[in-house]
TrEMBL record:
InterPro entries: C1q_dom (IPR001073), Collagen (IPR008160), Collagen/C1q_domain (IPR050392), Tumour_necrosis_fac-like_dom (IPR008983). SMART domains: C1Q (SM00110). One of its GO terms (cellular component) is extracellular region. Residues 55-70 have a biased composition (Basic and acidic residues). This is Adiponectin.
Length: 244
């Protein structure tokens, strides 16, 4: 070991010729610092410890812009927006197909009331309702042939008329409404001269009102007549029913 160090020392020593400073023009030769002439260099020391880390350097310049990334995930559905303004009215459409035929209404049947009747034989009794038993029309049966009275079932305005054949006796006949004579007809019979007596009237009736013909007055005025070739008739019908 010592031998090796000695060899290294000898190699490190400058040779005499080399060590002598050569005076170069303009460059003064300098003696070794703080050393005396003829100094001998020592053995190199061991390498020092690493110094503390230096301070962080300055921020570098921004790099170039990167490439565009992938699209993100779809977000949640948003709230329903407000209702928009109503648009303008569209053009008129084509006419539709005709509808089906409707069912028959009830009104026409409900508001029907009519009768037309006649005598079958001459009248022999006075001061009672005359019974017309020859039925020309009595569809609704509002006329009662057993009593000779018409019974109002529909309130409204009614038309009544009678045409009486007068034979053998005078005729005094009244049209009664609710036990009160409201129309009078008088015809005098002349021997061998058949006559006709008639009357007509419009009456407003309420439901339940009754209308009939009856011989009135004292005496024999029941010359109402009928046979196969002579009729005496009594007719009535609803003209207008009352509006509720
Ligand atoms: Ca007469
Ligand atoms: Ca006559």
């Amino acid at each position: 070991m010592l031998l090796l160090q000695a060899i290294l020392l000898l190699l490190a020593l400058p040779s005499r010729g080399q060590d002598v400073p050569v005076d170069e023009p303009g460059v003064p030769s300098l003696p070794p610092k703080g050393a005396c002439t003829g100094w001998i260099a020592g053995i190199p020391g061991h390498p020092g410890h690493n110094g503390p880390p230096g301070r962080d350097g300055r921020d570098g310049t921004p790099g170039e812009k990167g490439e565009k990334g992938d699209p993100g995930l779809t977000g949640p559905k948003g709230d329903t927006g407000e209702i928009g303004v109503t648009g303008a009215e569209g053009p008129r459409g084509f006419p539709g197909n005709p509808g089906r035929k409707g069912e028959p209404g009830e009104g026409a049947y409900v508001h029907r009331s009519a009768f037309s009747v006649g005598l079958e034989t001459r009248v022999t009794i006075s001061n009672v309702p005359i019974r017309f038993t020859k039925i020309f029309y009595n569809q609704q049966n509002h006329y009662d042939s057993t009593t000779g009275k018409f019974h109002c079932n529909i309130p409204g305005l009614y038309y009544f008329s009678y045409h009486i054949t007068v034979y053998m006796k005078d005729v005094k006949v009244s049209l009664f409404k609710k036990d009160k004579a409201v129309l009078f007809t008088f015809d005098q019979y002349q021997d061998k001269n058949v006559d006709q007596a008639s009357g007509s009237v419009l009456l407003h009736l309420e439901v339940g009102d009754q209308v009939w013909l009856q011989v009135y007055g004292e005496g024999e005025h029941n010359g109402l007549y009928a046979d196969n070739v002579n009729d005496s008739t009594f007719t009535g019908f609803l003209l207008y029913h009352d509006i509720d």
